[in-house]
Structure formats: structure tokens, C-alpha cells
């Protein structure tokens, strides 16, 4: 974690309100801390991959049901990861745009080897 973001970390056990962050750069270290459980990260990765595949099928078939499939895959896998394994509430409930961005930045960082799967 970048030392300049040390102030964004809360003491152990303290709740952090994701609405407090004024930029995505401030939010992302918090986002990563909410994905400490490896199974949660894996479920995010699977869900994001399935969402991308669903969007590709949507483009090829023009069948709008694949959009629903993409949303279900992306959010469904992620929310199972949070509620069952991470035991926290997804930040998407309070910071939907930053959380959506965080999903894709973490996905990229997993592929780049910066975040362990």
C-alpha cells in the first residue's frame, strides 16, 4: 500500500465510511482492504470474467438477456464473496461508482500480478 494513503486506513476494528473519500486514488486502498480474503478476490475475478464473456455474447447475439447475465455474474459472485467469505458489506452500497471502478482496477491488477489471486 502506498504510504501516502496511510491516513485512509482505519484502526483495527474501526468502521470506515466509504463516502469519506474524495477521490478514487484515496478510495482504492480502502477497496483493497475490503478484499483481504483470497476467496472473495477469486469470486470477484470469476464474476468479472463471466461478466465480460456475457457482454461479448451480448454484442455477438444482440440478445439483451446477456446484459442481465453480465450484471448477475459480476455482482452475484462479488456479493457472495463479501457476505460469505469476507463477512463485510460491499462498498458498492455506499460508493457505487468508485466500487465499480475498483472492481476493474483490481481485475487489471490481478492480471498484472500486483494483487494476488
Automatic annotation (TrEMBL):
Q: Which residues cross the membrane?
A: 43-60, 66-85
Q: Does the keyword Lyase apply?
A: no
Alphabetized InterPro entries for the sequence: Mpo1-like
UniProt keyword annotations, A-Z: Membrane, Transmembrane, Transmembrane helix
Write down what this protein is called: DUF962 domain-containing protein
What organism is recorded for this protein?
Answer: Pseudacidovorax intermedius
Amino acid at each position: 500500500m502506498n504510504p501516502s494513503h496511510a491516513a485512509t486506513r482505519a484502526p483495527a476494528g474501526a468502521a470506515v465510511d466509504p463516502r469519506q473519500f474524495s477521490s478514487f486514488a484515496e478510495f482504492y486502498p480502502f477497496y483493497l482492504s475490503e478484499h483481504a480474503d483470497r476467496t472473495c478476490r477469486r469470486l470477484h475475478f470469476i464474476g468479472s470474467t463471466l461478466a465480460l464473456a456475457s457482454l461479448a455474447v451480448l454484442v455477438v447475439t444482440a440478445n439483451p438477456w446477456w446484459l442481465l447475465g453480465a450484471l448477475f455474474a459480476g455482482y452475484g459472485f462479488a456479493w457472495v464473496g463479501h457476505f460469505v467469505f469476507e463477512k463485510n458489506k460491499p462498498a458498492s452500497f455506499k460508493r457505487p461508482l468508485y466500487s465499480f471502478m475498483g472492481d476493474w482496477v483490481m481485475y487489471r491488477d490481478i492480471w498484472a500480478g500486483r494483487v494476488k489471486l
